[in-house]
Each structure stands twice: as structure tokens, then as C-alpha cells.
Design brief:
It comes from Flavobacterium johnsoniae. Keywords: Membrane, Transmembrane, Transmembrane helix. This is DUF423 domain-containing protein. With 128 residues, the chain is mainly alpha-helical. It has one domain: Four Helix Bundle (Hemerythrin (Met), subunit A) (Up-down Bundle), CATH 1.20.120. It contains four helices and no strands. Helix 1 runs antiparallel to helix 2 and helix 3 packs antiparallel against helix 4. It is elongated. The model has no long low-confidence stretch (mean pLDDT 93).
Length: 128
């Protein structure tokens, strides 16, 4: 599980760098400042959670089942939150109406919050 978490964290982080560069260098010609700022929010939260996964992989005091739960919440949350933000921020470049997926952003954010809450409560309940 630890290897999978590290690989996923590294992959999500790598994609965040790629998307950030893509937004900063290519999309700035086509998107408004507001759309670029929205796109950057997706990149930022994706990177935060890549680092979160790398941190999670170092924890030896958390049960494997709990780590797996946090991992699944983070991966699903990043895909839904950042993924939907990327699509919504670039909707002016396509003919598809991405408003259909607008529910994905708050759902993804909620999953990320739950992941952090599970970590917090797990550590809080541990005796020092």
C-alpha cells in the first residue's frame, strides 16, 4: 500500500506541475484572468493533496485500513475537485456544456475534507 500511495502522490504531483505549466504558458492566450485563476485553484489543490499522500505514506502509526480509506478519499476527491475545476475553467474552449458536472466540484471538496478529518480524528484518538 505504501508504494501505491507514494506512486500516486508522485503522479498527481507531476500532473499538477504539467497542468500548472500548461495553464501558465498555453492557456493564458485563450482564457480570461478569472478562468486562469480558477484553473490555478485546481492545480494548487492537486499539489497540496499530492504532498498529503506523500505524508500519509510515512505514517506508521495508522492502521492499514484507515490509510486505505484516506487514500481512496484523496484520490477520488482530487479527480472530482481538481478535474471538474479544470474542465469548468476551460469550458469556453469547447462546445460541451460542463455545467452538467458542476456537482463534482463540491463533492470532490467534501471528500478531501473527509480525508483530512479521518486523519485528524485518527491521530486525536491515539494515545501518545
Amino acid at each position: 500500500m505504501k508504494r501505491r500511495i507514494v506512486l500516486t502522490g508522485a503522479f498527481i504531483g507531476m500532473l499538477a506541475i504539467i497542468f500548472g505549466a500548461f495553464g501558465a504558458h498555453l492557456l493564458k492566450k485563450y482564457l480570461s484572468i478569472e478562468e486562469l485563476n480558477t484553473f490555478e485553484v485546481g492545480v494548487r489543490y492537486q499539489m497540496y493533496h499530492a504532498l498529503f499522500l506523500l505524508f500519509l505514506s510515512t505514517r506508521k502509526d495508522i492502521a492499514e485500513k484507515t490509510i486505505k480509506t484516506i487514500y481512496n478519499l484523496v484520490v477520488a476527491g482530487v479527480v472530482l475537485f481538481s478535474g471538474s475545476i479544470y474542465l469548468l475553467a476551460t469550458k469556453s474552449l469547447t462546445l460541451f456544456d460542463f455545467k452538467i458536472i458542476v456537482f463534482a466540484t463540491p463533492l470532490g471538496g467534501f471528500l478531501l475534507i473527509i480525508a483530512w478529518a479521518v486523519l485528524f480524528l485518527t491521530i486525536l484518538r491515539k494515545k501518545s
